[in-house]
Write a structure and sequence with these properties.
CATH class: Alpha Beta
Structural class: alpha/beta
Order of helices and strands: EHEHEHEHEHHEHHHE
Strand order of the largest sheet: 3-2-1-4-5-6-7
Radius of gyration: 17 Å
CATH topology: Rossmann fold
Shape: globular
Bound molecules: NADP nicotinamide-adenine-dinucleotide phosphate
Distance between the termini: 30 Å
Strand content: 15-25%
Length: about 250
Amino acid sequence: MMDLTGKNAVVTGSSRGIGKAVALKLASLGANVAVVYAGNKEKADETVKELEALGVKAICYCCDVSSAEQTKQLASQVIADFGGIDILVNNAGIVKDGLILSMKEEDFDKVISVNLKGAFNMTKAVYQHLMKKRRGRIINISSIVGLNGNAGQANYAAAKAGIIGLTKSAAKELAARNVTVNAIAPGFIETEMTDAIPERAREAALAAIPMKRPGQGEDVANAVAFLASDEAAYITGEIIKVDGGMAI
Ligand code: NAP
């Protein structure tokens, strides 16, 4: 039985969507959770209440993960509040879609900066702490778009492919200290991010899923929980697709 009692998890982007489902799943297994959000305090407060109802400690923190300074401060604050960090889930992400020809430079930079540099900043912020503890888990949320590419998402696909390189490099750097680093590549998961996709593109995406249904945040959360558990102690540098077969 997976058990995370007493473990402290930091989940970026857990005010809503996949991150919230991850926070709730980890808490249901006993983990305390630091809820990181970008601006949506109301939603973050709601997540904290739902986590507390599961009997764990939960605090929310406003932090823009694209800022190295803010992530550094966040890590120190969480360590002070919770007494340490055992699990980091780099889930925060945004989209700014468009074909390459019309994609603005600032939209390319912004997506790379939140989705890829954000995960790097957070990893760096907890790096020494986890090295010293000689145990830990880092789980990065990539995407099947990072594996296969997607027309209209060059910035997002590049960031998500970058996450895979970051994951494998960090896995090699931290393995000797018993810190595992893995990634999940979700397919089409129903959240506010996918709600924003135009109907025709949405239908095409759904038609491409062999399991004939969109995924839910919980589908991703279950895989994160496994990677965070003691049962996954010998798995590192791995990318697990959670996509109903979409990228087969
Ligand atoms: P979502 O519903 O749009 O939620 C995004 C979350 O990220 C929110 O909690 C948001 O906080 C936070 N966030 C955004 N920018 C941030 C920043 N600069 N610093 C800190 N937090 C920030 O997205 P989702 O669908 O749950 O996606 C979560 C992750 O899964 C993303 O990395 C996404 O790329 C990935 N993914 C999603 C799908 C899918 O089908 N949905 C598929 C593959 C991969 P606020 O609430 O404060 O804005």
